[in-house]
Structure formats: structure tokens, C-alpha cells
Design a protein that fits this description.
45% of the residues lie in helices and 12% in strands. It is of the alpha+beta class and 113 residues long. The chain has one domain: Alpha-Beta Plaits (2-Layer Sandwich), CATH 3.30.70. The chain has a two-stranded antiparallel ribbon with strand order 1-2. The longest helix is centred in the first third of the chain and has 17 residues.
């Protein structure tokens, strides 16, 4: 997680995306918590323009993937994933385009007793 934060802070989306792909492989192969549908969603994304990386998210054994995609490719990416996945599985996925935002933070440098 700290490595990922550093990569994002430096703007190294290529390496961050690679780490996402490595994480999915680990979840699939070492922990065996992925499933055919999630693996297919990740595989379909790999060759699309603007794709940096993706992985399953949630509890495993089904659910969803999160993909890092260049903003200018996000609409086309969503459309193509929907089309290819629907055709391959007969399942019409819900796809959400979102942007990253600062997470919660706390300033604990000053404490009062």
C-alpha cells in the first residue's frame, strides 16, 4: 500500500497499473479467491486503449474489478468492456466511471489532554 501511494504521488501510473495486475494474479493464483467472471473482466481490459491496470476488489469469489484507465479513454473503455463482457458471459455488467479523491485524514500532531 505504501509503495502504491508513492507511485501515485510520483505520477507513475504505468508501474501502479503493473502492481494492480500483479495483485490480481496473486489473488487468483496464490489465494484462489477470484472466479472465471472476474478473470475474464481483467483479461478483456488488458488490450484496451488507456488501460494501466486492474484487479478484483471486494470479498472475492465474484464481485467487481477496479481498473485504472486514462481519463480520455474512460467512456470508450466502459463501452467496450460492457460489450465484450456481455457477449462472452450473457451478463450485463454495471460499470461506473469515477475519479480518485483524497481520502480521510487526521492531524494528530497536536493533542490536548
Amino acid at each position: 500500500m505504501l509503495d502504491g501511494s508513492r507511485l501515485l504521488a510520483k505520477g507513475n501510473l504505468d508501474r501502479f497499473g503493473e502492481a494492480m495486475r500483479e495483485s490480481h494474479r496473486s489473488l487468483r493464483e496464490l489465494y484462489q479467491v477470484s472466479c472465471r467472471e472476474l478473470d475474464l473482466m481483467v483479461k478483456l481490459a488488458e488490450d484496451l486503449p488507456g488501460y494501466y491496470g486492474g484487479r478484483m476488489t471486494g470479498g472475492g469469489f465474484g464481485g467487481c474489478t477496479v481498473n485504472l484507465v486514462a481519463a480520455e479513454h474512460s467512456e470508450a473503455f466502459a463501452s467496450q468492456i460492457w460489450e465484450h463482457y456481455s457477449k462472452a458471459t450473457g451478463i450485463q455488467p454495471d460499470i461506473y466511471i469515477c475519479s480518485a479523491a483524497d481520502g480521510a485524514a487526521a492531524d494528530i500532531s497536536e493533542t490536548s489532554e
